[in-house]
Amino acid sequence: MVLGYASVVSTIPPLLFGIFCKGWENNTLKVVMLLLITSLSFDALSVFGIHPETGKQLLFNLYVLFEFFICWLVFIIYWKERILLLFAVLSSVLFLTVFYVDVVIPGLSQKFSWIENGFSAAVISVCSLWSVNRVLVERREIEYHKDYFFYVSLAMTIYFLGNLVIFIFKDWIISKRPELWVVHNLLHIVFNFILCVAFVKWRKLRLSHSSIQPSL
Amino acid sequence: MEETEVVSLIYTAVFVTFCIILFILYMGMRNRRTILIKEHALKVLEHEKQKDVLRAVVKTEERERLRIARDLHDSLGPALSSVQHILSRQAYKRRDSYSEELSAVSGQLEKIVDQFRSICFDLYPYALQKYGLVATMKQFLNSAAAAAGLRVTVADEPEQDWITEPSVALQVMRVFQEVINNMMKHAACNRVDLTFLTEGEYRKLRLLHDGKVFSDADAIQNAAKGHGLSSINARLALVNGSILYGEANGNALIEIKIPAYHGKDKNSPGRRSRDDAPDTGQVAGA
């Protein structure tokens, strides 16, 4: 229970770091901040302002939808590559099909869609893993531990890949062994912590290269 | 599947996932390191190539300078001197109205011969072969200082084998000439102290003057502007030397540092550039 609340609250520090480090000056981090705001809003709604039975399913399914597109946006804005855009479009079409078949047709608030969530986590995991590898191998002009995008990609990799199995077994976990959800909460806290580091790294980079355009 | 089996499956899957993340991170870092090492090796190779090209250019330039200096010195030099000698003798012998004019022409010719010698020295310092680097540097500094009215002191004068490699000695001499010329032009000084130092495997040439201080930052700023500073840097790079500009005890400091090569290290630039030296015969006090 405590860890659940801690997981919800853990979204606030990276947001504050984002504001303090002027994350909005960077297009990629602007989208990351949008992801944090969305996450916080949905969490707040799920805790305080929604029908406990059906509302959570609706919120969860909609959040996965938003999360999927926002995460893609982060990678597309940062890497600015056509091939990535093509993959994003293809996976989005597949995702929307899954969403329609598994969520919209049965009713938005009927169930937690593990297919939607699993698909989203798998796609974002692959993309973030690719991104981590690319930062390590290709962005050699800067040390990787000083690169804010390394941390953004790492945070996403740890969160989505780590949660992949949890999301797939979500229905079962929530109904039979809710204590296993602690893994998700822990990973969510780690995700937010790494994002804090990313904002700090961005600030350092911005200060050291104040003449460079911030929309890296 | 039993409940406990599902739980252990989930835990195992999460564990395996983290192993995968760690493995991919490790591989990424390893690849990065490998690429960085390769890039560094490539850069070193490229740098060496550039040095070789520069060395070849300098070698050709020095060879050409030597040829021109030798031709001028051996043909035009004696001819001018002999004409000047004849004229001065005639001026002395004749007691008519032409005597004064002949004497004036002879004086002019003497100045021309001096200038001609100076040009020959700039083209190729012949004294380097005859008297060695230290003596040639002193001679050059003294004549430059005499022309500009400067006071010169030389301290810790070393043995003649201070730098034995002919090509290194030539490059050091060229750098020295350029530094002194720059000092005369821009420093507005009245006194120059030259010190020869030997520090371990390095030879140092320390120049202190009471003129305008030129810092390392100025050198970087002006390197692109003038040919002189870039020539100094290029020539020092050839002999793995360096130059330092700064201030010491209220005086402007210029310090040239060169590795000492005495034929011990086969890979030293001095050894390598022995083949590159123009055909000068015995040089620098050897």
Keywords:
heterodimer, A: 216 residues, disordered C terminus, B: 286 residues, alpha+beta, five-stranded mixed beta sheet, 8 helices
Descriptive report:
The complex is a heterodimer of chains A (216) and B (286). Chain A has 216 residues and is mainly α. Chain A is 77% helix and 0% strand. In chain A, helix 6 (114-138) runs antiparallel to helix 7. The model of chain A is unreliable at 211-216 (pLDDT under 50). By secondary structure, chain B is α+β, with helices and mostly antiparallel strands. Chain B contains eight helices and five strands; from the N terminus they run ααααβαββααββα. Chain B has helices at residues 3-93, 98-123, 126-131, 133-148, 166-187, 216-223, 227-238, 269-274; strands spanning 151-155, 191-199, 202-209, 242-248, 251-259. The longest helix of chain B has 91 residues, at 3-93. Chain B is elongated. Mean pLDDT of chain B is 79; it is low at 262-286. At the A-B interface, helix 6 and helix 7 of A face helix 1 of B.
Q: Name the average pLDDT of chain A.
A: 85
The DSSP helix count of chain B reads 8
Mean pLDDT of chain B: 79
Please state the CA-atom Rg of chain B, rounded to the nearest Å.
30 Å
Oligomer, anyone? heterodimer
Helical coverage of chain B, percent range: 55-70%
- Tell me the fraction of residues in β-strands of chain A, as a range: under 5%
Beta-strand segment tally of chain B:
5
Largest interface: A-B, 22 and 20 residues
Q: Which class best fits the helix and strand makeup of chain A?
A: mainly alpha
Order of helices and strands of chain A: HHHHHHHHH
